[in-house]
Design goal:
Blueprint: H1 9-19, H2 32-39, H3 51-61, H4 85-90, H5 98-106, H6 116-134, E1 142-151, H7 158-166, E2 173-184, E3 187-197, H8 203-211, E4 217-227
Antiparallel strand pairs: 1-3, 1-4, 2-3
Length: about 230
């Protein structure tokens, strides 16, 4: 039983199928099973080909500072986790989702001998549990952006420029660190990092608001942008 070699496409496919319906390799929280599986990968899987494996990888990466303290046996190989060998050999994509089986077990087995009242109660509890799981909000898509804000000349008050810029408030906008970067002839530009929620903040609108400070700002440019 267990995962295949993650360095192969088949191995990544077994991981993709496994975490499609799971947040963790084993159980309902991060453990050494996630740690050894994470370390078996050379880097994040390609999001275009293995989106669920990529999501799991990024999620587990957020626990890296806690790897040593997570529960479980760190000596176990990652190949001891994952689907049964028979499931992999037949077709991983057709394997039954373990989460659904576990959900059923949370509220008792579907035994033919149970009375109608118990069966009805179990089904109601199961339906409520699944509805609660489906209702969990997905994390908002965010991007980290680096903006270059250029002044008119070397006499521009850069402290006032930055102060005016940081007074801009938008739902989904978080200002980060900034620094002055030399351009030429004694002129320095302000380079600032910020995090935005993609659905709430338009970078074009933000640049327009910054450039409204015509006494200090000549122009703005996006120096870098990356999805979180």
């Amino acid at each position: 039983m267990g995962f295949l070699d993650f360095l192969t496409d088949a191995g990544l496919s077994t991981l993709e199928d496994w975490v499609t319906t799971r947040s963790y390799i084993y159980g309902y929280g991060p453990s050494q099973a996630d740690v050894v599986s994470f370390k078996a990968l050379k880097g994040p899987p390609k999001v275009e080909k293995h989106p669920h494996a990529w999501r799991w990888y990024k999620h587990i990466a957020s626990y890296q500072s806690e790897f040593a303290s997570l529960p479980g046996d760190p000596s176990k190989a990652y190949t001891t986790y994952g689907p049964e060998a028979s499931e992999v050999a037949i077709n991983p994509k057709n394997a039954p989702a373990a989460d659904d089986e576990e959900d059923d077990d949370l509220f008792g087995s579907d035994d033919e001998s149970e009375d109608e009242e118990s069966k009805k109660k179990r089904e109601e509890n199961l339906a409520a549990y699944k509805k609660k799981k489906e209702g969990k909000a997905k994390p908002a898509a965010k991007s980290i952006v680096t903006l270059d804000v250029k002044p008119w000349d070397d006499e521009t008050n850069m402290k006032k420029l930055e102060s005016n810029m940081r007074e801009i408030e938008m739902d989904g906008l978080t200002w980060g660190a900034s620094k002055l970067v030399p351009l030429a002839f004694g002129i320095k530009k302000l380079q600032v990092n910020l995090v935005v929620e993609d659905e709430k903040v338009s970078i074009d609108d933000l640049q327009a608001q910054i450039e409204n400070d015509e006494d200090h700002v000549q122009s703005t440019d996006v120096a870098a942008m990356q999805k979180l």
